[in-house]
Amino acid sequence: MTSPPFSSGIFGLVKGSDGARSRSLLKDATELYVSEPGHTRSEIAMYEELTVQLLKVTALQDRIRIATLLADFDEVPASVTRALLHDIFPVSSVMLEKAKSISEGQLLALVSTASPSHLEMIAARKTLQPSVVEALLGRMRAEDLTALAANPSITLSPSAIRHLVENAHGNPRLARQIAARMDDVQDTDLIDLFLDLDGRGRRRVIQALEIAALREFAARRPLPRVPMPDPDKVATLARACLQRNTEAMSRILSDLTGLDAAFLVRLLADSGGEPLSICLKAAGVDTGIATRVILFSGVDDTRNYFDVKRLVDLYEMVSLRSALLLVDRWRGALPSAKRPPVHVAQTQAGTPVRATASDIGRSEKPVEMPSVRRDRA
Q: Among 30, 61, 89, 166, which one is most buried in terms of CB atoms within 10 A?
């Protein structure tokens, strides 16, 4: 009985090989291995044994070539895949980027010890299993979560979305990636990220606020009465606008809204201007004063005509009830010295059916729209 061609080829490569030849032997064997569409168990075992013996002494460029050849091949022994995945980044990145099938267990094992660069490449893979997504959330740095949020092939769980939102504060890139997800991220999930979003994401939040305002109206909850602002303060605000005195503008708006003056400075400097328009609506100032504040705010000397028109239209379009909902949200979130958010996997946090004993009595309640309360104009 003759030996299979692959076995004969391997024996021919191994026979008489010296030290220099052994460094490239595995590359040649891999090229021979992938040249055949299928292999017997003995051939797979032989190649696996050869890889275990020679991979550590194979040159880097040859290992990259081996990973490239095996990434598209179906019959790759699990130990070979594992060895290539745990190799240095130039080798493992080829497998992570091109290999179509890597088992869930192999990815989980890699996530537990991988570098940030490896984690980003894993997060970008298509159709990741939920357990791998959970593991990534527990290991990835906040600044690297954009790779996971930008992956459209996965569906994020509610706990994963909450974790991403908590880490997106002050991170506009991550916030905008979250807002771009239309299937699993709801408009209401984005309310606390309003300042970090672009125009498209902010439109989603405004829509969510208007729906919440309609629900308040349908429930016959009274709209809080907003007293007319003090005329002297309004006149002082108008003069501060002409002088482009941002400090004075923020101080007066702080008196009118109850928001912190430093927070108002951020609203006045916002290039988009949507937060400022909504804040002015909640403050109860008239359209003329609102137009003047909008005109002399922002990062430039004055906003151009089209920006002013867009923001004044938003001021007139948004309802007072929805503006108050957002400003009350800001007011409640201002004093924050929060610890960096840490993702807690569902298996650790328990489920609605069976919670862990340590969570009884202190489980978090679902996020609700705040009740409309206004203590001062």
A: 30
Distance between CA atoms of residues 79 and 81, nearest Å: 5
Per-residue burial over 184-204, b = 16 or more CB atoms within 10 Å of its CB, e = otherwise: ebebbbbbbbbbbbeeebbeb
pLDDT digits (tens, 9 = 90+) for 210-269: 999 999 999 998 887 777 888 999 999 999 999 989 999 999 999 999 999 999 999 999
* DSSP string for residues in 176-242: HHHHT--SS--GGGGGGGGGGS-HHHHHHHHHHHHHHHHHHHHTTPPPPP-PPPPHHHHHHHHHHHH
**Residue 37 DSSP symbol:** S
The 3-state DSSP class for residue 342 equals coil
Tokens 């997800």, residue?
Answer: 181
Q: d(Cα 267, Cα 46) in Å, to the nearest integer?
A: 67
Amino acid identity at 78 = A
* Rounded distance between C-alpha atoms, residue 351 and residue 208, angstroms: 28
Token reading at 303: 């906003």
d(CA 161, CA 143): 15
Q: Are 133 and 148 in contact (CB under 8 A)?
A: yes
Q: Is residue 144's pLDDT more than 90? A: yes
- Quote the CA–CA distance of 163 and 342 in Å, as a whole number: 7
Give the contacts of 173 (CB within 8 A, at least 6 positions apart). Answer: 146
CB-based burial label for 278 (10 Å; 0-12, 13-18, 19+): buried
Residue 241 contacts residue 276 (beta carbons within 8 Å): no
User: Residue 368: how many CA atoms within 13 Å on its side-chain side?
Assistant: 8
Could you give the CA distance from residue 293 to residue 312 in angstroms, rounded to a whole number? Answer: 10
Mean pLDDT (whole number) for 56-76: 90
Q: Which residue type, as a one-letter code, is found at position 369? A: M
**Token couple for 352:** 């609605």
From the list 103, 41, 58, the residue with the least C-alpha distance to 30 is 58
Pair 181, 157: CB distance under 8 Å: no
Q: Are 149 and 164 in contact (CB under 8 A)?
A: yes
- Tell me the C-alpha distance between 154 and 343, whole Å: 18
> What is the reported pTM?
0.76
Residues 277/318, Cβ–Cβ less than 8 Å? yes
